[in-house]
Design brief:
The protein is mainly α. The chain is built from four helices and no strands. The chain has helices spanning 4-17, 21-33, 46-54, 62-72. Helix 1 (4-17) packs antiparallel against helix 2 (21-33). The longest helix is centred in the first third of the chain and has 14 residues, at 4-17. The radius of gyration is 19 Å and the shape is elongated.
Length: 88
């Protein structure tokens, strides 16, 4: 990991000098989320876990998070599509 200000300097330099629009788009996207990674984001999820348990659903796990991220990024071709599930 590098300090945020060092990454910001790198990003500015690449955005100024790079000819590849795809690289610029990636850096702009990462830059918008990066500051949030430096903030402690611990969440209390007892109520959510209780609702899931009431519906006989497993609590979120690493696998669930991985699958959600895969679906959000469009890398879901090989993932099973859930059926009969509802979101509260």
């Amino acid at each position: 990991m590098v300090p945020l200000n060092e990454f910001e300097r790198f990003t500015e330099r690449v955005l100024r000098n790079c000819d590849r629009e795809s690289t610029k788009a990636i850096l702009r996207s990462v830059s918008s989320f990066l500051p949030h990674l430096a903030i402690d984001q611990t969440f209390q999820n007892a109520a959510t876990t209780a609702l899931l348990r009431d519906d006989n659903l497993p609590a979120p796990s690493v696998e669930v998070v991985r699958d959600v991220l895969a679906r959000l990024t469009g890398d879901s071709a090989s993932l099973p599509v859930p059926t009969g599930e509802s979101i509260r």
